[in-house]
Amino acid sequence: MDSHKEAQPKGDFECQLCGLTAPYSYYGQKPPNTHSVVLLEESYVMKDPFVPDKDKFLILGSQCSLCNRRVCVGTECSLFYSKRFCLPCVNENLQEFPLEIRQDLDKRKSHSKSHPSKKADART
Amino acid sequence: MPSSEKERRAQRRSRDPSPSRGHRGGRWDWSSAETRGRLEELYFREQDYIRAGSEDSRQFWAFFERLQLFQTLKAEGEPALRAPPARADPSAAPGLAGLPQEYDPRYRINLSVLSGEVEGLARGRSRGPRRGPGVPAERLSQFRAALLHYLDFAQKQSFAKLAKLQRERAALPIAQYRDRLLRAVAQNQVVVVAGDTGCGKSTQVPQYLLAAGYSHVACTQPRRIACISLAKRVGFESLHRYGAEVGYQIRFESTRSPATKIVFLTEGLLLRHVQREPALPGYQVLIADEVHERHLHSDFLLGVLRRLLPARPDLKLVLMSATINIRLFAGYFGGAPVVQVPGRLFPITVVYQPIPQEEAAASGKPERLDPRPYLRVLQAIDHKYPPEERGDLLVFLSGVAEIGAVLEAAQAYATHTQRWVVLPLHSTLSIAEQDKVFDMPPPGVRKCIVSTNIAETSVTIDGVRFVLDSGKVKELSYDPQAKLQRLQEFWISRASAEQRKGRAGRTGPGVCYRLYAESDYDAFAPYPVPEIQRVALDALVLQMKSMGLGDPRTFPFLEPPPQSSLETAVRYLREQGALDGAESLTPIGSLLAQLPVDVVIGKMLVLGALFGLAGPVLTVAAALSVQSPFLRPTRTNPDCATARRPLESPHGDPLTLLNTFNEWVQVKSERAGGSRKWCRRRGLEEHRLYEAANLRRQFQELLRDHGLLGAVQGPRDSSARQSRHRERRELHHLRRRHEETEGRKRKVLKLQGGETGSSSDEGAGAGRAGPPGVDIQDVKFKLRHNVDELQAAAGTALSSHQLALLKLVLCRGLYPQLAAPDQYNSCRKDSDQIFHTKNKQGIVLHPTCIFAGSPELLQTTEEKAEPGRSRGSQEGLGSRHQLLAFVSLLETNKPYLVNCLRAPALPALLLFSRALDTSADCTRLVADSWLELCVLDSEAALRLLSTALQLRAAWEGLLNRQLEGRRGEPGRGPDLREVATLRQRLLEFLQHKVQYSLRRLTALEKQNLYVGPQTVAAAPGLPGLFQGAEMTPDEEKGGYRVTEFLTYNCLTSDTDLYSDCLRSFWTCPHCALYMPFTPLERMNHESSCRPQPQEAPPEEAAESPAKATALQRPYHCDACERDFMFTSTEILRHRKQHQ
Predict the structure, then answer these.
(1) DSSP-H helix ranges across B1002-1044
(2) At B539, is the secondary structure helix, strand, or coil?
(3) What are the structural domain ranges in chain B?
(4) Tens digit of pLDDT for each residue in B692-707?
(5) ipTM value for the complex
(6) Which of B239, B256, B737, B783 to mutate: most A Cβ within 10 Å?
(7) Which site in B518, B626, B805, B907 is 20 to 30 Å from B917, CA atoms measured?
(8) Is B86 close to A121, i.e. CB distance below 8 A?
């Protein structure tokens, strides 16, 4: 009853790549009631709807540090490597990223090709 | 995966020396409780994101172990392949300039844990000496890294769930129709959405409407459970975007608040809203879900809404239905547009396997179901499908007996093959037993769920791959003539058959075995018979009347009910006094219309309130309105029967229920949580007692709202208030904790071993969910009810007077639902006792009835006690004849009386009969044209009759004043002294001992019961028989109509041709007038001579006349142990009575 007061939704976050939409209640680096945890980027945050504890938060997404597009944290839309990058920007500047990240992207690409049905629905 | 396996591995790991443990000294042990405790003290403090001891911290440590294992394996597997640092390209975007050149996984984590304070603590500076050595910095950073990974992992996990949820929503068939639906709603007042199972209409349509900007949406459901689960699901799917804006409202629970934008509620509840506010001003959109199920309330609601729509042009109505009979609904609403959505079911193979003729014929007893065809299907599945391919079997049978038969055989087969776990499912099982069907079978074993049609719509079980359909259903049908409910077996409809089949294709392709031929299927009715055409319509008609819907006979129903049902209902309501002669609501009728219960039970409540018996009557009414808490005895369980015995009341089942409820409340208030065990030992389903408690409270509030019950008194002093407040806070806390850990974990079912007994009973229902030791139902109960108040009501034992009055009140409520014992019952076996009602003969007692086990309670034992007194000629003479008042009549293989109460026959009939017909000397009385009472002594007969007349008038008067005065006007309520007088006189009336016989009239006698209209000119030269009441010749029966219910001297008889002019000497006990009287004159004199009842002092009203004469003197009768003022003649007469 009293929980909805503190987590008034501020608006809807929508990923400009995949269209994922969810209401966020905070934008910034220090979500309320998170104590010693800080975020390393300005993020759209909601209360984690999947755990009963009302202090737990969920980061939905943030702006790409290169193109400023609003993107979700899903691995098919963006990655974090000291800053947020949307995948189109990463692919444009692939050589700037360490090998581990490039390998990771390759692996993911081949993986999603072998299971196209699982991820295709809403995320293209 | 079995958790023990995991634990063992974790242990092994902690014992193994691994590179991740400290090399120096090898003392560092991550898994030691001490180490963990120290780290938790540093990082998992009360104000931290993760708290020590929480579920979260446990998960962290589990994650920590996995992470270490992973890192170890990785370190062993690949010799650190150092990648060349990425070359900083000067042409790259400036945003990329600061990227760390050397890769570290922690750069990929977008959060951090502040550490300043923590570092200081780790060195033990700011802590006391007890802390011991700090944590080495290296360990600390290892721990911190792990913590970050854990937080990142938790984020990824939750985000994945979010993404999956949205993907799934988008993939539902209805998603493609979203825009079309919204357009249709915008352009039309009524829209029909037709879609089959799995299309997502129930969860999505409300969300689409909300997102499109509609608010004040109500979505009706036929089942309470669906309201709760849909509200939860929609709240969850919308990520609580609407927070408190998604709610539900069912009979005893509501999460509704002013912020609520959409509420899921039962059809019945929305109808109650209409009753209060006919235009439903609080709603903008109404969604009626599952209208194809054609429940009584659903059909009626549609009728009400159709009338409402023109008055509310801004109101939108969305009907949702399976793709069944869509034209009916669209047509009813003037050709409303239909949005048809395909369902999402996997392909299902249908196998027709009719039972061979010769087998069906050879099975002998037709009542006993032959389980062989069912076993063959189990065998076929075992042969055809390897056990590794999972998939359970759902068997549809018609009833509990059939389930028992198949269960027994299937269990024997399961014991033999070890490949099945067989579980029953029907509504009379305990909730815990029902819940078992959701448990998982062990690998290689299938569940076989043997169910009634409850699994067709109400209960959805995942993982079913095979359906076995008997094609039969048992349904209550209603016989309006006998007012009898009949549970009969029918073939199902094609729609039901398809619904059953569909249960096999929810999670994958399935198989449906039908134990009938395809030609049978084709011959089935297309749809089930709508409820409105097969149930009693009393409550419906009452509700229609109170909604001002006019004559129910002309109401434009979706499909009208049979005219005879409506007629019966109207007549019944008139008989019960809820409607008057012009079929409009009486005061009591309008009150009854607001009670969501059977009319008879509502009447009990009103009557009980008058005599200060509200407490017990509330309990009885509530307990009779829920399913019986007594579980059917699982075979013969002597322990359970013994434990139940002290609860049983010799007066009848309603009082047994009262005892049970009261005892349960006592147990609850004495030892919290002990009630669960207490119930289990007595074979009681506690859930139903909780329901009864809720219902009781609702009745109480309703009676209060109507001024029939005084207001509650809260605890007076402030300390009691405070302690109550504290207690409530604690309970709230417990409930919240429970809700946080909610979500019942699925258990793995045990394979039934050597013993063939049904699924193991012990421990069922115990410790299912929630923190250990907390009975969440108990917590909720204590939050909802004032236990002290309940206990106070339950704790006071009823005095014998109160008990007698309570029985009278219950009996008046139940009237005319009376049954008389067959005259030869004393020569019958205990189990073969037969009873008759006015319209139905040869009824037996339901096996759960107390009198079924102890029929001696109904015997009139006094003849045996005084053998010398039987007068030979008049057989069946006695003073204690009993009738049974019953709550319902149910016909299955036999007609049964359900929930019986015994009542003294003569007083009950004199006080309650709608029609009392007498002979000239009033020794022969016929009640409601079917029961004949012959009183030996005409004197006594007259006295009783005239007392009964006065009592009835007084009672009726008080009741009317109570109902009129209930609007809170002071001074209009019944006078308490009058009530006390009436109580007293009723009790005295019950104690009169008169010798009489009780007999059911034969059909022939019924035909020739009355003398018929006579040509006698006028009343026999007498003023009115009773004050004010005019005696008019009765034009049908003959004789004279004295009151609405009493007709004097209309019975045919060959002995009393002259009796109405035969005078005999008589002394009036009031004025001592001594002269010859005819019976009629005597009655007339007595009633006019009698002092006004309210003027008499309450205690002695009946015995001592106000005007004592010199002739009278005190007389104590030893035989009846009472004191009288008698003249000598009266004494003689009185003594004679006892001889």
Answers:
(1) 1003-1007
(2) helix
(3) 3-77+105-158, 172-341, 348-529, 595-712+725-753+775-808, 815-822+830-861+875-901
(4) 998 898 888 888 877 7
(5) 0.89
(6) B239
(7) B805
(8) no
